Amino acid sequence: MKLFAACTLAAIILFVSCGGNAGQTGADGMSAATRRRGPTAKKLLERYMPAAMADGIVKIAIVRNLAVSDHTRQFLEGCIAEGRSLGFTVDTFIIEDDNSRCRELIGKITAADYDGLIISHGDAGFPYDSLKRAAEKGIKIVTFDALPFVDGDSGSGIINGITSTAQDDARLAEITLEEIISLAGKERPARVIRVWFGPGIPPLDQRQTVYDRFVSQGKIQELALVSPRGFAFSRNGTRETLAAVLPLFPEGTVDAIWAPYDEFARGCVDALKEAGRRDIKIVSIDISNDDIRMMLDNAGIWVAAAAVDPGLIGIVDMRILAARLAGEATPDAYTFGARIVRTASLNNSVTMANIGLTESDWVREQGLFDNYQWMTELKTAGKKHLRLSPFADSDPQIAGNGVMRNAP
C-alpha cells in the first residue's frame, strides 16, 4: 500500500513538472499560452505607450460639459467602447453646462494621475487656462466643441499637444438654412423664427455667423428670436419662450423655425403641439436615437436635421487621443463632415447604429484615425485575451455630475 502511494505521488510530480506544460515559461520569458495567442494588451501598451504605462495602466478621463441626453450618452458610449477596445481604463464625468465646476474638475483631473483627457463643450475662453496646466504636466488632450485658444480667439494659437475637434458648424448651418429656403419655395425670403443662445458657445456662434450671412443676402427674413433662459434649460426654456411668441404669428405667416441644437428643436415641438400648430416646420442641427423617434412621431413638424453621428465623434476623439499617447503625429484640429437627414427618409427601424442604410453617404468610422498597426494589435489582443466587462450584462448608468469607471 505504501509502495502504491509512493508511485502515485511520483506520477503526479512527474505530470506537473513534465506533462502539464501549458503554464510553462520558455527561454523568451513567455508562456505557451501567450505564445499561442500573442502578447496581452498590457504587454503591447507597455511597448507602444511606455510613459502612460509607467504605473501599469492607461487612464483616460472624459469630461462632458453638457446636459445628460441621448446625444451625450452616445458620445460617451463611443469614447468608452473605443477606449476599452484599446485596453484603457476610462472614467467619465458629466458637468451640466457649468463652466465653473468644469474648471474645478479639470484641475482635479490634472492633479490626479490621468494620462489622457477628452473634454466636450465649453464656452469660449475658459478651456485655454484650464487645460494649459494639464498639457504642461504631460497629459494628452483632445477637445470637442471646446476651443483651447486664448479668450476663444482662434488666431491666438492652440495649446501645444492638443487636438481640437468639431463638427463642420458652417456646413451644418448652410445645409439647414438651404433646406428651409427649399421648404419655403417662394421668390421672397424664407420667414423664420430663430432659436439661439449666446454668444460664448463656439459651435452656436459659428452657426450664427452663417445665419447672419443668409439674412444679409436677403435669403432669410427673421420674424422673431427665441432664446431659453439658460443653456442648461434648452428644451423647457425654448418651449416657454416660443409659446409666448406664437400668438403673434397667425397660421401661414411663418415658414420655419431654425433650431441650431436638437434640444432647442425638442422644445419647439412641445410648444407647437401644445398650441395645435402644424403650419410651421422645424429644421434643426444634431441627431440622436431619441431625436429620430421624435422626428417620426412629429413628421409633419420636425422635417429635417443636419448632423454628425455623436457616437462616431466619441470613437474618433478616443482614437486621436490614443495616437497622441503612442507618439504619433496628429493634427491640431479635425472637423467632422455633416449631412442632412430628412424625416421622410426615416422609418421605425432606423437607429443611429444603422442609419447608414437609409442615408447612403452617412459618415462612417472606418478609416478615421484607425490606420495604425499598433492599434490593430491592441484590439486583436483584447479579443484574444477576453474577460468579462463589469457592465457586460447591464447598461451603465450615466449619472449627472458623477463618474462612471469602465475598466478594460
The shape is elongated
Mean pLDDT across every amino acid position:
84
- Compressed to H and E, one letter per element, the order equals HHHEHEHEHEEHEHEHEHEHEHEEHE
- The total of beta strands comes to 13
The major β-sheet equals: 7 strands, mixed
Radius of gyration: 26 Å
How helix-rich are the residues, as a percent range?
A: 40-55%
- Termini Cα gap: 52 Å
- Spans of at least 5 consecutive residues whose pLDDT stays below 50 are 1-23, 387-402
What strand order characterises the main sheet? 11-5-4-3-1-2-13
Tell me what portion of residues adopts beta-strand conformation.
15-25%
Describe the structure.
- It is a single chain.
- The chain has 408 residues and is α/β, with parallel strands linked by helices.
- It has 13 helices and 13 strands.
- The strands form 2 sheets. It has a 7-stranded mixed β-sheet with strand order 11-5-4-3-1-2-13, with helices on both faces.
- Strand 3, helix 6 and strand 4 (140-144) form a beta-alpha-beta unit.
- The longest helix has 18 residues, at 2-19.
